[in-house]
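quick q for whoever's on today - can somebody do inverse folding on this one?? i tried earlier but teh output was garbage lol. tokens:
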């Protein structure tokens, strides 16, 4: 490689590295326009919004991992039986496309001693909308509220 070619390759590499995160980000005061706060919750819908009471339940005894989403979210070891209730506030757009709530329980010892998924239920406004017995249906529970 000639001296000029090596210098060109090194300069190009330095330019690429600088362009790919080598430079410090601009402080918020220098950014292009205001940015919404990352931790600010979405505002409830004003016109056409709807609220629904949601209850997630996992049956069984003992402890198992429970992953849930829709009224908050989490993935933790829980003592069984377990339930979580909350309000889902749907925007007008979410009422059209849907708002997913789900609970996916881990395994427990079944009545016959084998491992099986813990049973789960989702209720929306007091009505059972999804259910899994953990034996014949093993994908957890999910429901799209509209």
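ok took a stab at it. sequence:
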């Amino acid at each position: 490689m000639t001296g000029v070619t090596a210098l060109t390759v090194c300069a190009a590499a330095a330019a690429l590295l600088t362009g790919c995160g080598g430079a410090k980000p601009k402080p918020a005061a220098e950014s292009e326009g205001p940015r919404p706060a990352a931790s600010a919750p979405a505002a409830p819908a004003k016109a056409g919004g709807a609220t629904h009471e949601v209850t997630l339940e996992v049956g069984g005894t003992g402890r198992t991992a429970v992953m849930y989403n829709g009224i908050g979210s989490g993935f933790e070891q829980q003592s069984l039986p377990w339930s979580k209730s909350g309000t889902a506030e749907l925007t007008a757009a979410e009422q059209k496309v849907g708002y997913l709530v789900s609970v996916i329980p881990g395994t427990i010892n079944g009545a016959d001693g084998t491992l099986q998924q813990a049973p789960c239920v989702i209720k929306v406004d007091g009505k059972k909308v999804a259910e899994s017995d953990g034996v014949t249906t093993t994908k957890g529970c999910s429901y799209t509220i509209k």
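fwiw The longest helix spans residues 3-22. also The two ends are 65 Å apart (CA to CA). so keep that in mind when u check it
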